[in-house]
Amino acid sequence: MRTADLLTELGSRDIKVWAEGDRLRYDAPEGALTPDLREELISRKAEIIALLRRADQVTGPAALPLVAVPRDRPPALSFAQQRLWFLDQLEPGQSAFNVSLAVKLTGVLDVAALEQTLSAIVERHEVLRTTYASGDDGEPVQVIATTGTVELEHVDLTIRAAAERDIELQRLMDERVNRPFDLAAGPLLRATLYRLAPEEHALGLTIHHIAFDGWSFGVLTAELAAFYRAFVERCEPALPALPIQYADYAAWQRQWLQGQVLETQLEYWRRQLGPDLPALELPTDRPRPAQQTFAGAREQHVLPATLLNDLRSLSQREGVTLFMTLTAGLKVLFHRYSGQSIITIGTPVANRTRSELESLIGFFVNSLVLSTELDGKLTFREVLARVRETSLGAFAHQDLPFEKLVEAIKPERDPSRHPIFQVMFALQNVPIEAMELPGLRLGALPVGRSSSQFDLTLSARESEAGLGMIAEYNTDLFEAETVRRLLRHFETLLAGAVSVPDRPISRLPLLDKAERQQLLVEWNDTESAYPRNASLHELFNDQAALTPNAVAVVAGDQALTYGELNSRADQLAQYLRGV
Predict the structure, then answer these.
(1) b/e map of 392-408 (b: 16 or more CB within 10 Å)?
(2) What residues does 456 pair with on adjacent strands?
(3) What whole-number distance in Å separates Cα of residue 349 and Cα of residue 366?
(4) 517: which residues sit within 8 A by CB, 6+ positions away?
(5) Helix 79-90 to helix 402-409 angle, to the nearest 10 degrees?
(6) Which of 199, 319, 360, 511 is 20 to 30 A from 105 via CA?
(7) What distance in Å separates the CA atoms of residue 408 and residue 395, rounded to the nearest whole number?
(8) Bigger pLDDT: 516 or 31?
(9) How many other C-beta atoms are found inside a 10 Å radius of the C-beta of residue 370?
(10) Sign of the C-alpha dihedral computed for residues 558, 560, 561 and 562 taken in this order
């Protein structure tokens, strides 16, 4: 249940909820607050307070209705879309902003119904049949096609042997997800159906981020299921009409976010971030390129279920969310890695704060900046309190698009870095329903991305097995083993924090048993056998005879080989004998 839905549920039971400072208050009729609802209130306390604070600030232009606007001229882009368009103009041919979905379909597939389904979704959502061009004033505009169809590409892999088939499928899917889009020409959705056997197929979809975000996956899968079932069963899909489209939201956003509303948001962020926010300087394996690159790869790691349960318990005791506890752990880790006192990361928010937006496919997600000052003497419990305060304030002021924040803060231009923050962290809780299609069994397929929008992006998702983590990293900066080690250090640090939350963060453990054995024992095991009956100068003579041209000693810009050093030692010995 989403936090907004929880508040709706409480309201339906006549339970009043309000915030007093950092405390959550409620007034409930007898029997209305069930144990389950009470537990939800406690676990989501911080999120509820942030949502209530934000609701209190919605005044004036925020009450503007979100309605369909005339299409008598090409609509402007949303602020987020405009930034991606400018990035594409600066560096065309990038695939860093491609998003993808790949599923395996086992059973009898109605290919015609699938093609109809994809075209129906594109017809339903204008943003999937939109391209982007420069207007008469040079500013980008949306060019919306009147109708839209999807050309489903067919690839037959049945002629290949089973082992070769799987390898080729992965290669082809990876190639398609990493193929750039042309924002001006479109289409910005690619669909490929791979035939693996008579009753075995794989469907790959790739969409540009300018038209899609994480929440959109849930909308897409739900509509795929609804349309496909309807076309197979020859009936009308049970989907209500969409009252507005993404272009209507873009127009509303530009009309609402101005004047006092904009200035209120800007004032908070200027005060929060200050004029000289330092970049996060994580140690890298290679020098940072002069121009930001998007070359990337992924590593995965799972925090065990026992640790996840401990993290949940700690979060509940401290009145914070799991997201805040994980964020605090990451900031401590980066503080230890970099030695910096101000640690800044970004986090995505769905930014669908109005009910009209929940059923739309589009690019709504916003990036929030979380900046916290740390000191090695602070305990983890104290860091949690700081991160909680930072997070509540950020979520209460999440309406300011990141693009507007960059304009206001005006960070020193550095083409080698993403502006303001270089590391993104996301705890995935997007409601993605399990897709069910008649006559088919579905299974997710991995898709290999070879790009990274940031230096490092850490994504986490809860499951019965524990907390699954994916680290997407820039391969021009980091080696795979470095990222794997970072994930292990994160796990060890969190385990130490939940065990003793009042321990200073400078003393929280980072090394696991294997690393401690390697660092303290194996690398210090320098014992070497040598002849016990030989004197030191005899051993040196033997080494000089074996490697006379090898460098033995260096002092400043001077160096002596073993042969030279042995010769000078002999001269000194002869001189001393004659004295």
Answers:
(1) bbbbbbbbbbbbbbbeb
(2) 423, 473
(3) 5
(4) none
(5) 70
(6) 360
(7) 18
(8) 516
(9) 22
(10) negative
Using DSSP bridges, classify how beta strands 551-555 and 558-561 pair: parallel, antiparallel or unpaired: antiparallel
Distance, CA of 88 to CA of 431 (rounded, Å): 30
Place of tokens 């460098």: 551
Nearest-5° Cα angle at 320, 316 to 321: 90
Angle between helices 3-12 and 35-43 (to 10 degrees): 140
> By mean pLDDT, which of 184-188, 233-237, 446-450 is the weakest?
446-450
Task: Give, as one character, the DSSP assignment of residue 110.
Answer: -
User: Which residue's entry shows tokens 């964020």?
Assistant: 327
- The angle at the Cα of 349, spanning 347 to 354, to the nearest 5 degrees, equals 165
Residue count (the chain): 579
Let me know: does 74 contact 409? Beta carbons within 8 Å. no
Question: Can you tell me the distance from the alpha carbon of 547 to that of 253, in angstroms, rounded to the nearest whole number?
Answer: 75
* DSSP assignment string, 280-339: P----SSPPPSS---BEEEEEEEEEHHHHHHHHHHHHHHT--HHHHHHHHHHHHHHHHH-
57 class by beta-carbon count within 10 Å (0-12 exposed, 13-18 middle, 19+ buried): middle
Q: What are phi and psi of 55, to 5 degrees?
A: -65, -35
Residue type, 263: E
Q: 103 CB contacts (<8 Å, ≥6 apart)? A: 202, 203, 435, 442, 443, 444, 445
**121: CB partners within 8 A, 6+ apart:** 128, 150, 220, 223, 224, 227, 361
CA 474 to chain centre: 13
Mean pLDDT, range 231-247, rounded to an integer? 93
Q: Cα separation of 572 and 179, whole Å? A: 71
Cα angle 323, 334, 478 (rounded to 5 degrees) comes to: 110
- Written as six digits, the tokens of 398 are 């999440």
Rounded to a whole number of angstroms, the CA Rg of the chain reads 30
- Residue type for 433, please? E
Residue 449: the pLDDT is: 74
Identify whether the C-beta of residue 456 lies closer than 8 Å to the C-beta of residue 422: yes
Start-to-end C-alpha separation, the chain: 94
- Report the 3 state secondary structure along 116-140: HHHHHHHHHCHHHHEEEEECCCCCE
Share the mean pLDDT of the chain. Answer: 89
Q: Higher-confidence residue: 392 or 41?
A: 392
Check if the beta carbon of residue 356 is closer than 8 Å to that of residue 348: no
Distances (CA, A) of 205 to 14, 166, 218, 430: 44, 18, 14, 19
- Number of Cβ within a 10 Å radius of residue 373: 13
List all residues 6 or more positions away from 481 whose beta carbon is below 8 Å from its beta carbon.
none
Alpha-carbon span 270 to 333, nearest angstrom = 26
- The dihedral through the CA atoms of 314, 317, 318, 319 has a sign that is positive
